[in-house]
Amino acid sequence: MILVKTPAGQQALKDRSVPMTPRQRSAFILFDGKRTVDEVLANGMGIVREDIDHMVALGLLEPAEGSAPAEAAKRVAPAAPAADASGRSKQQRYKDAYPIAIQLTGSLGLMGFRLNLQVEGATSYEDLLALAPKIRAAVGAEKAAALDKALND
Question: Model's pTM, two decimal places?
Fold first, then answer.
């Protein structure tokens, strides 16, 4: 199946209104109406089908015309992600926590450079959750409270 950027996706790419990891952003750019989903997944960027499903669910990508839209969209669009008692899925927690973690580690300057790289490489909720103690130790519990809330609330 071939996906293309929607007008909302084009705008999100320009103004960065939808937080995406660097890997997601790179893969998003590859959806040009010529490459199939499998080709983008095989590109070696570390992107997974859930990332693509998330972009489709957000309305950033849609099946290209003539790309079997009804059946293809059913295969790509996720069923509702599993949520916990708070009603937020792990994917939503990751989406909320990632920009906070980037901001916190970016504010550390050169001393936080390696930690910032680790956060940028985090591709899942579990990855960010594992980095949270390091971030908390580096910035202090008070500044890390927003990250803790995004990850655990």
Answer: 0.47
